[in-house]
Amino acid sequence: MDLIKKSPWVYHLNTGGCIGCDIELIACITPKYDIERLGCLLKGSPRHADILVVTGPLTMQTRERAKRVYDQMPKKKVVIALGSCGITGGIFKESYCEAGPIDRDIHVDIYVPGCPPRPEAIIYGIKKALEKLQ
Amino acid sequence: MLLVDVVKSWFSRASTTKYPRVPDKPKNYRGKIEWDEKKCIRCLACVGVCPCYAIKFDKKALHDRGRIEIDHGKCIYCYMCVEKCPVNALIGTKEFEMATDDKKELGSG
Amino acid sequence: MIQLAVTVISAIFLIWLERKIKARSQYRVGPPIYQPIADLWKLLQKQNLRSSLSNPLMNFLPLISLLAVALIAYSLPLGNLGGSIDIISLIFLFALTSLIYVFAGLLSYSHYGFVGAKRELIQFFSYEIPFALGIFSVAIFAGTIYFYQPFTFSMVLIPSMIAFYLAGLAKLRRSPFDIPNAEQEIVAGSLTEFSGPSLSVFLLSEWMEAFVICSVFVDLFFGFNDALISVALSYMVFISFILIDVVTPRVRLDNMINLFRKFVIPLSVFGVVLCYLWTL
Q: How many angstroms separate the Cα of A121 from the Cα of each of A36, A39, A48, B25, C72?
């Protein structure tokens, strides 16, 4: 019996954007949109987590570090690209240090558009990612 | 004393809106943008004003009348195109459940 | 055997209670009741990754920790059911569970592990003395080192009781002394490099340790002959730990050392001397 849908643990990685999407992700654990009732926890170490949430476009400095963080996560993992910057580069496209959307280096499973996406949109994205995991 | 507040909070209602069961659509929310084909006069003002180049005009689609394509992955939901359109052909909805695993569904590359 | 089963079930229930109380105190809805079991089961099915620089013995440490806590849980006196442990082994096993946490941080080759291990070791030197002296004072007062029955309450033991309570709070790594896993808010402390099954065994031994310390506290200082009253009282003690956890912030490491050195350690020494003089 696979109980990963009941307790997804999230690791949050910011690869160099403005922190709008990060604020919305942290807003998910505030009392208004509490995701702990769904079993979600925001963990500090990638080795404990199942879901990698990447915000921001990839910059030249964070390209290989994001790949290293992805390799450190144990098997059965999903990657969520949060915000328009993760899908196509968003508003930072063609800027001086931007290195392309996230799926140049890491295989992304779910894209969540929005700038920034609502906390409810993030919860919907996590739900779809968990369905992909099973 | 903080302990009194803590014990009082155990007996009051939690202030959580339980999302999947309670749909929440506040006013003035900038969600997905839809294009109304019948009102559009193909002036291409929206293509010029978008700061992210998210709106494209395809000349040969729809039997040579031309179609406006919005890339929801590039869009930053600033709604400048909605304000600029002279005939209100671009409508802002309040939809936000757009998470998907295929970029082409959103219109991106 | 019954004591071990009660410990495992109570550990899972108490951890759920802690998360639920912390959530309700912040006007949130907490996790549902099957949440700790779902966490453990999910972790058992993940891959066991290990960095190439870390020691291969790292994956045996959670088993040793679980064994130590299970040994204490197996031989605790619980009301009418007799215990089968003596005071010296009890102190040794309790020290072992804390030191395994230190070794885990050292063997996993990461900065966060080293810092977490160093902080836990410094905290260990502060709280282990009042912890051990609290247990010793009860043994001196009752005149026996065998922990076969719960000891009854007496006013003479009150200084040792307060010292043991504060030392237990520090041993469980809860606020205001949650310095070794303070990094869980920031990074992850000693347990950073553990993943999958090793992590689940470590978490289970931490949760069981919580119930075991509360149960030892109740058996040493308030002993009742009825098992249900003992278990209910240990739940109350744990809820008091949670309440202190919710309202206090974290103290700095040198503030914690000062507090223990200037208040708790002298209090425990005074308790031992008082018990010895009382028996004369």
A: 16, 17, 24, 12, 48
Distance, CA of A110 to chain centre: 9
Which of B9, B11, B18 best tests the C interface by mutation, with the highest count of C CBs <10 A? B9
Q: Per residue in C48-74, pLDDT tens?
A: 888 888 888 888 899 999 999 999 999
CATH assignment, A6-133: 3.40.50.12280
CB contact under 8 A, C27 and B9: yes
Task: State the greatest distance between any 2 C-alpha atoms of chain B, in Å, as a whole number.
Answer: 73
Nearest CA-CA partner of C217 in C279, C276, C138: C138
Nearest Cβ partner for B97 among A110, A119, A121: A121
Quick one: how many helices (H) and strands (E) in chain A?
4, 5
Single pTM value for the model: 0.90
Contact criterion met (CB below 8 Å) for B7 and B64: no
Asked if B22 reaches chain C (Cβ–Cβ under 8 Å), the answer is no
In chain A, domain spans: 6-133
As a whole number of angstroms, the distance between CA A12 and CA A125 comes to 14
Cβ atoms C35, A7 nearer than 8 A:
yes
Give the total number of structural domains in chain C: 1
CA dihedral C236, C238, C243, C247 (to 10 degrees): 160
Whole-number average pLDDT of chain B: 86
Torsion of CA C235, C241, C244, C250, to 10 degrees: -150
Between chains, do C243 and B12 touch, taking CB under 8 Å as contact? no
Structural domain of residue C29, as residue ranges?
2-279
At the topology level, CATH places domain B41-96 in Alpha-Beta Plaits (3.30.70)
Which residues does chain C have with pLDDT short of 50?
none
Neighbours of chain B (3+ CB pairs under 8 A): A, C
Structure-block tokens of residue A27? 């807003």
Q: Where are the domains of chain B?
A: 41-96
Rounded Cα–Cα distance for residues C34 and C39 (Å): 9
DSSP state at residue C187: S
Q: Which pLDDT belongs to residue C195? A: 83
Residues in contact with C161: Cβ distance below 8 Å, sequence separation at least 6, in sequence order: C134, C221, C271
Q: Give the C-alpha separation, A39 to B19, whole Å.
A: 14
Which chain A residue has its CA at the smallest distance from C20's CA?
Answer: A37
Q: Is A120 on the interface with C (CB under 8 A)?
A: no
User: ipTM of the assembly?
Assistant: 0.88
In this structure, are residues C132 and C243 in contact, taking their beta carbons and an 8 Å threshold?
no
Task: Give the pLDDT confidence score for residue C183 in this predicted structure.
Answer: 61
How far apart CA C176 and CA A122 sit, in angstroms, is: 33
List, in sequence order, every residue forming a beta bridge with A53; answer none if it has no partner.
Answer: A12, A80
**pLDDT tens digits, residue range C100-122?**
989 988 988 888 888 888 889 99
Say whether C247 and B2 touch across the interface (CB within 8 A): yes
